[in-house]
Amino acid sequence: MMKKHASFLTLLLMFAGLVFMSSKCGGGGATAKTPLELISGTWRVSRVLLNGNPDNTGNYTAFRITFQSASGNPTNYNVIPGNAPARPNINPANTGTWALGANNTQIILDRGTPNEITLTVLESTENSLRIRFKLPRNVDKTEPEYTFELVRV
Questions:
Q1: Which of 9, 68, 85, 88 is the most exposed place for a label (fewest CB within 10 A)?
Q2: In terms of Cα–Cα distance, which of 74, 57, 68, 66 is closest to 146?
Q3: Model's pTM, two decimal places?
């Protein structure tokens, strides 16, 4: 009888060990986020480069950009310019639609409208987003290139 209890206890301990090990090792980790999930959200400026040099002429502290999505698709964006200079502003309404392009390496704002602009995604992580864009000639004839280094709010 003692041997029977010992075998049962051994089996029970082995089963408990397997359950414990599978909960620690097996697929319980976080899944990698998609480019859409990484970009969606509200961002603030940590640094702005103008033609490769720090842009110290503007106050970007209150600048915010929000990329919204629903059902796995990009929807709208909204910009709160704060005290940022007027020149990098492409769309006077500060709102519109956005889409991902070129294998998720581009954010296209206001596709198919006169305000359409393509932002190149240089880096996209859980907490940082780095984008580069050139102002079109019809907005600024010198076509300045901006790089926005953003952090999640």
A1: 9
A2: 57
A3: 0.79
Calculate the average pLDDT of the chain: 85
Query: Rounded distance, CA 111 to CA 43, Å?
Result: 21
pLDDT at residue 100 in the model: 98
First CA to last CA distance, the chain: 65
Give the pLDDT confidence of 44-53 residue by residue, as tens digits: 999 999 999 9
Rounded CA separation 129/67 (Å): 12
Summarize pLDDT for 8-25 with one digit per residue, the tens.
444 444 444 434 444 445
Backbone torsions φ then ψ of 143, nearest 5 degrees: 50, 60
Quote the CA–CA distance of 88 and 99 in Å, as a whole number: 19
Largest separation between any pair of C-alpha atoms in the chain: 93
Given a cut of 80, whether residue 78 has pLDDT beyond it is yes
118: which 2 tokens?
A: 């393509």
Handedness of CA 82, 125, 131, 78 (dihedral sign): negative
How many other C-beta atoms lie within 10 A of the C-beta of residue 148? 23
Return the structure tokens found at 19: 């359950």
Q: Phi and psi at residue 36, in whole multiples of 5°? A: -60, -45
